[in-house]
Each structure stands twice: as C-alpha cells, then as structure tokens.
Specification:
The protein is of the alpha/beta class and 148 residues long. It has two domains: 28 residues, no CATH class; 116 residues, no CATH class. The chain has five helices and seven strands. The longest helix has 17 residues.
Length: 148
C-alpha cells in the first residue's frame, strides 16, 4: 500500500486506494494484494480480486465491482467449486509444498511445475522451516530456506 500511495495516481484512483485501506483495516489481519493485476474482463467497474488458501496454488474464487450491470452499485464473486473440492481433498499427512511463494508473481511462476503455497503472514522463513518447505520464491527468483 505504501508503494501504491507513492504513485502519481489520478484523484479517483487515490480515493479508491484510501477506501481499500479502510476496508483492509477492518479485517484486522494481513492480506496479500497484487495491485498490478490486469483486468481480463470489461464488465468490472472497480476493484476485482481473487482468493487463495494455504497449500493450494490456484485461486478458489474471484470477483469484483459490477456497478451499472443490474444495479447502480453492485459487487459479486464466483466460487470455483471444482477447485474448492480439490483443495479440500488434499490427502491427510501429505508432504508440505516444495515452494513458499512470497508474492503472486512467484506463485504464477512456480505453481505449474512444483507444489507451491502462497504465503501471507509475518515471518516466511520461520514458517517455511516449521513446515519443512525447502524453497522460498519472490518473483522469478527461487532460493533455499537455509540461505535466507
């Protein structure tokens, strides 16, 4: 959020960013944001999002603002039932992921070839060591936890 506030944004974008910060404060827990995600659909009129769960490298749901579609102000989301069932079906006692992704770029880069978990907490190195995850990833870079 600090990086986004430092950008030369137009007034409407500054207002949207301030509203997003207020909303995140209400959650009271860390949230990983990728404010650089590009829109793929024209019907979004404002913020759009995806939700992930630990241990599953793909989004379980996605949605956003749809102002003017049916109502003056509206928001919604779609839950990927097949993905949700797949995430719930992970075998008990399964080995931990091989990679702990520290950002969405790393998740997108490594989730296709290795079991990857998106991290959203305070201390990724301690978390990886506790779970036995051997690699951390940031962007395109992959490095061993022991070297962190």
């Amino acid at each position: 959020m600090k990086e986004a506030r430092g950008l030369p944004l137009p007034p409407k974008a500054q207002e949207a960013l301030a509203q997003l910060e207020k909303t995140l404060d209400l959650l009271g827990r860390p949230v990983l944001l990728d404010l650089g995600m590009a829109r793929r659909y024209e019907y979004y009129s404002g913020i759009f999002f995806r939700a992930y769960t630990p241990g599953f490298g793909l989004p379980l749901l996605g949605g956003g603002r749809y102002d003017g579609a049916l109502f003056p102000k509206a928001a919604g989301f779609a839950l990927g039932v097949e993905r949700l069932l797949e995430a719930l079906r992970l075998p008990k006692g399964e080995e931990p992921p091989e990679v702990l992704a520290l950002d969405l770029k790393a998740l997108r880069r490594f989730a296709r070839e290795r079991r990857t978990e998106l991290f959203h907490g305070e201390d990724p190195v301690a978390y990886a060591r506790r779970r036995g995850i051997p690699f951390l990833a940031r962007g395109e870079e992959l490095f061993r936890v022991e070297e962190a």
